[in-house]
Amino acid sequence: MSKAAAFKNQDALRYVQNFLCFGNEFPSYCPAYSKLSVQKVPHLQQLLNDGRGKEVVGEIDRFSAGDLSVSRTAVIFALAACAQSKHVPTVQEAYKVLPHVIKDCGELFTFVEYAELLSKPNTGWGAGRKAAVLNWYKLRAPMELVALITKCLSRNNWRHRDIIRLTHPKSDSPVFSTILTYIMKGMEEVKKVQQEIEPDGTLNDVLAYLDAVHQVKHTQDEQVVARLIETHRLSLEQVPTVLYGSREVWGALAKSMPYSHLLRNLGKLTSVGVLAEGSPYAPSIVARLRSSEAIHDSKLHPVTLARTLKVYECGQVSAKSKSKWVPYMPVMEALTDALDISFKNVTATGKKYCVAVDIAGSVTLARLVGGHVTTEVSTTTAAMVTALAKAESEPLSLFTYHNKMLQPLNVVKDTTVEAVARMLTPNIEGGTDVTRPLQWAKEQRQRFDVFLVMTDCTTWATSGSGKAALREYNSALQLTDTKFIVCGMMTQGFKFATTTEPGMLDIVGFDESSPHIIHEFVTGYR
Q1: Could you report the per-residue pLDDT of 329-355, keeping only the tens digit for each?
Q2: 178 CB-near residues (< 8 Å, 6+ apart)
Q3: b/e sequence 161-178, b meaning 16+ C-beta within 10 Å
Q4: Whole-model pTM?
């Protein structure tokens, strides 16, 4: 292979890595959902057409196993594209990794939907796909499988029953046969056939779990449902919506709810009375919120805790939200402690950062925009800055700026989120030239690996001027891999990064996934 061809393939792989990480081949991340299609992944198609599909499958497997992606839908779409490749070794490799790349039933249904879409005008249900999809069911432990299939019954008009009919499974295992009977004919038929099966420990556990799910679906007795949830560690997806207002049901769910789910449901737990003065459930939940072990296991970034704290403090998710609550002070205190503990979750990139925070707009202000409460924005910005200051070995260079003026700020490893937030004093004048930090660093001959600009104003610079500023900086300081990341803190559409400059990235609406994307982009997805 010529050097030019090798570079071309490496360049295409970089675009595919972008796609696997955040769902867009081009250097722009937007939290809003975008429907995927072949037309949106030209570089993925290029690699498949060039016979480099096995390399793509390897990247899919690596991104999935290493939790490098914030867009599981993109990972599944890429796997489906590889499975429909005309290159037989690529197809075989895609089906080989399918059982462990696809994590749950929702992803399985999504894969089947994309695979059929990409197979048109055929359905694509050949022997390879049938075997791989069936292996997804067979290779799981029985208790894991029954939990998964009862949490997600259907998606995209696909049901487990549809898939089982297409794959024609055969099994000598009484346990797997029982699960298949449940899928195809329901719990009543399972009760009939279980009398003909020699029971064992695993089968008894499966039957008890399926019976518990069946009971929960067919009763409105809150005490019974709460007991079954606690005994079998059932989840919210298995509870009928008619019971979503029950304090007893939510109290039982909270005991085994993953930490991240617990954070997302704090408002609901408060509104139904689980988190309230005198509630028997409150002490254990509050203790868990500030548990160092739980926070470490969750791997959550401080930005997530900061946003959770501010939204909970507001008493509603948005100004138009019907769900409202009165914040419970012990929860506020526990979340503050959790935020401090979560900084230990941040992994250093080993890079030297220049962070410039725009103070000419809403980045530092609390107000209503578009009907949404944005009081968490300033705390989110401060949490991101503080996380970088604490995690990185190189001292962080922090600036505030508006118009074309930069003001250096002193941030060290023991600086708190509150202290950083106080430094970000708003100034409402003027627009924003996001290339100014690069210009300053070039003039001062300051070497940085990463420029992170956090703004929410209309920028004076265009993508062309950003590309030119980055190349001028690299040329002046004889650097080759400087990263230039522009974060729009709210979802106002903008396009600043250019596809021809690999060091640039846009974050169009800073959310809880953004710190992870920044980390992976800066480290080259390694």
Answers
A1: 999 999 999 999 999 999 999 999 999
A2: 190, 193, 194, 197, 203, 206, 207
A3: eebbeebebeeeebbbbb
A4: 0.91
